């Protein structure tokens, strides 16, 4: 943010409301201010209903805000000039099921204005890149959610956009596909292009992003560079065996897992970890292990949001 790169996305005072039952109005986005600079990879995260998809729809021009200014490359969000420079993947992409993957991508290539002379060569390269080689002549009706997501990613990147806006980009993808998507996004970043994406896969966010924007109830509650977050957070992991419930745990303690081999908790520091051990022992627990582990983005934001992060 300090190196004065041009703003690709600029949102100022964004308010979006929807009608609810009995005439009520629900605030989906409440006074959002956000800037994304050229070449950044920014993760837009938060619990379900936080306003992430609504904000993305405003950026694409699909929704009109009640109030605020939203621009992409200095042009009004949703304008033809802005859209021509964006590659977009919605949260749920719907395709005509009787087309093959290649036929669907060919249609998108025509709509994008790619000439016939370059079209088939381009499609072959895209199909290879997103891992659809050998499956591209199968009908989409037989594709899994993850395979359809690969088609959507190919469609989003085919016009060589300067900005990628992706809503839940890794949804439904297996580990190999996530690796492929990560490589594509890092290639975009290496070319000086910009990526703005929402995700519930916090591990992927940690691997990809320069900066994190955490949204809750339509408001930004945390905005920071990923390296700063990880440098200033700790996870002291306590493994214990309990015969009964642990009771009310000390603050800033997260339950990571519970099973036959014991329960695993993460504290935000050694003082909290000691308080946790004392508490567990008072409830009849046997402490099996205590270690400091590399900071976890998931631990950090669960502490911010409690049970809301999903």
List the SSEs and their pairings.
Elements (H helix, E strand, L loop, with lengths): L6 E13 L5 E13 L3 E5 L6 H9 L6 E6 L2 E2 L3 H4 L2 E4 L11 H12 L3 H14 L15 H13 L5 E5 L7 H16 L3 E5 L3 H7 L2 E6 L2 E7 H6 L3 E7 L11 E7 L2 E6 L2 H13 L3 E8 L3 H9 L5
Parallel strand pairs: 3-8, 3-9, 6-7, 7-8
Antiparallel strand pairs: 1-2, 1-4, 4-5, 9-10, 11-13, 11-14, 12-13
Structural description of this entry:
Helices cover 33% and strands 30% of the residues. α3 packs across α4 (116-129). It is of the alpha/beta class and 310 residues long. It has helices at residues 52-60, 80-83, 101-112, 116-129, 145-157, 175-190, 202-208, 226-231, 270-282, 297-305, and strands at residues 7-19, 25-37, 41-45, 67-72, 75-76, 86-89, 163-167, 194-198, 211-216, 219-225, 235-241, 253-259, 262-267, 286-293. The strands form 3 sheets. Strands 6-7-8-3-9-10 form a 6-stranded mixed beta sheet, with helices on both faces. Strands 2-1-4-5 form a 4-stranded antiparallel beta sheet. Strands 12-13-11-14 form a 4-stranded antiparallel beta sheet. The chain is built from 10 helices and 14 strands.
Mean pLDDT across residues: 88
User: Which shape, going by the Cα principal axes?
Assistant: globular
Number of helices: 10
Number of strands: 14
């Amino acid at each position: 943010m300090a190196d004065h790169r041009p703003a690709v996305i600029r949102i100022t005072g964004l308010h979006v409301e929807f009608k609810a039952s009995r005439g009520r109005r629900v605030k989906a986005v409440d006074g959002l201010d956000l800037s994304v600079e050229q070449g950044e990879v920014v993760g837009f995260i938060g619990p379900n209903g936080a306003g992430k998809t609504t904000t993305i729809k405003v950026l694409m021009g699909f929704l009109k805000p009640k109030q605020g200014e939203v621009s992409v490359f200095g042009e009004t969000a949703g304008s033809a000039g802005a859209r021509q420079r964006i590659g977009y993947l919605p949260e749920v992409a719907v395709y005509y099921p009787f087309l093959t993957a290649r036929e669907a991508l060919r249609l998108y290539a025509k709509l994008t204005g790619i000439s016939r002379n370059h079209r088939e060569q381009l499609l072959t390269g895209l199909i290879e890149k997103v891992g659809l080689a050998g499956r591209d002549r199968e009908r989409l009706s037989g594709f899994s959610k993850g395979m359809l997501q690969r088609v959507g990613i190919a469609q989003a990147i085919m016009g060589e956009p300067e900005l990628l806006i992706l809503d839940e980009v890794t949804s439904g993808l297996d580990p190999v596909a996530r690796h492929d998507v990560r490589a594509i996004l890092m290639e975009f970043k290496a070319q000086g292009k910009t990526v703005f994406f929402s995700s519930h896969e916090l591990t992927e966010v940690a691997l990809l992003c320069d900066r994190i924007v955490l949204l809750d109830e339509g408001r930004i509650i945390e905005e920071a560079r990923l390296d700063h977050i990880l440098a200033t957070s700790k996870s002291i992991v306590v493994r214990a065996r309990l015969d009964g419930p642990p009771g009310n745990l000390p603050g800033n303690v997260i339950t990571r897992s519970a099973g036959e081999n014991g329960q695993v908790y993460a504290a935000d520091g050694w003082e909290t970890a000691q308080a946790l051990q004392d508490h567990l022992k008072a409830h009849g627990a046997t402490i099996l292990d205590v270690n400091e582990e590399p900071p976890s983005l998931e631990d950090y934001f669960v502490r911010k949001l409690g049970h809301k992060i999903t």
